[in-house]
Design brief:
Layout lengths: L4 H20 L34 H5 L18 E5 L5 H10 L4 E6 L2 H14 L4 E5 L12 E7 L8 H11 E14 L5 H4 L2 H5 L6 E2 H10 L3 E10 L4 E9 L1
Parallel strand pairs: 1-2, 1-4, 2-3, 4-5, 5-6
Antiparallel strand pairs: 5-8, 7-8
Helix pairs in contact: 1-4
Length: 249
């Protein structure tokens, strides 16, 4: 059975809308606790940000985190840089990046889910972050001009796309020459079968859409990236690992 792109997008959007609503109402220990970061194993969700000081970001931004790492820890962000977060969710990585680039820098958060965008904008007000903006859109068609950002970050989102070559092309397009791609994502340990890729729950859970490391590197190279590396960090189940992926435009 083959799933359509629309079916997969709906499953993904529904899961993240549900997570945003739960985080917004602080109901993160409800019946579907697997959607909530606070109960995730080490290296996932809020646990990837264990070094954050209390009150450093709004608690609800942590609760909405469904990532598999901390891309801001590897991006080497510098004051004055322009950053784009693909699939920005509740805004956690945007707020961390905004602090690192300072008042002369700027961070864009891109998300396709209305509920996550509303949550992120509310969190932005609560956090008092002024050098950031959240935009609605899809990572396969980034609503920014060519060569408009210095760094792209993302946290466990690219695996959710049904058109990863488009994601890589768009990322390369909006980065300045020499710009940096620094993301955390789930990477499959073996090429997935059609049956595995037909599982909508597994798609929304970041597994069925995962690329292998070899596929990731080939996709980045085809889009024009160089010096790409995939560094596994921790297990993401029996068939996948979480990894840090870096490349230069």
């Amino acid at each position: 059975m083959t799933r359509t792109s629309d079916e997969i997008k709906k499953a993904v959007r529904d899961r993240y809308a549900r997570a945003a609503r739960r985080a917004a109402t602080a109901d993160c220990c409800g019946p579907a606790v697997s959607d909530c970061c606070s109960e995730d194993p080490a290296g996932f969700g809020a646990s990837a940000y264990g070094d954050l000081a209390p009150g450093e970001v709004p608690d609800v931004a942590r609760l909405a985190s469904l990532g598999c790492g901390n891309p801001t820890a590897i991006a080497g962000l510098r004051p004055g840089e322009r950053v784009l977060d693909l699939g920005s969710g509740g805004g956690l990585d945007v707020f961390l990046a905004a602090r690192q680039v300072g008042p002369t820098g700027f961070v864009y958060g891109l998300d396709m889910t209305d509920e996550m965008l509303a949550l992120a904008r509310a969190n932005q007000v609560a956090a008092g972050v002024v050098n950031a903006e959240f935009r609605k859109g899809e990572i396969e068609a980034i609503p920014l001009p060519d060569a408009s950002v210095d760094v792209i970050i993302s946290n466990c989102v690219i695996n959710l796309s049904t058109d990863k070559p488009a994601v890589f092309r768009e990322a390369h397009r909006v980065l300045v020459p020499g710009g940096r791609f620094a993301v955390s994502d789930v990477v499959a340990l073996h090429p997935l079968s059609d049956e595995e890729r037909a599982d909508l729950a597994s798609w929304a859970g970041c597994l069925a859409g995962a690329l292998t490391a070899e596929e990731y590197l080939a996709g980045l190279a085809a889009a024009g990236f160089r010096d790409a590396q995939v560094t596994p960090t921790h297990a993401a189940g029996p068939t996948a690992v979480s990894a840090l992926i870096t490349a230069t435009a």
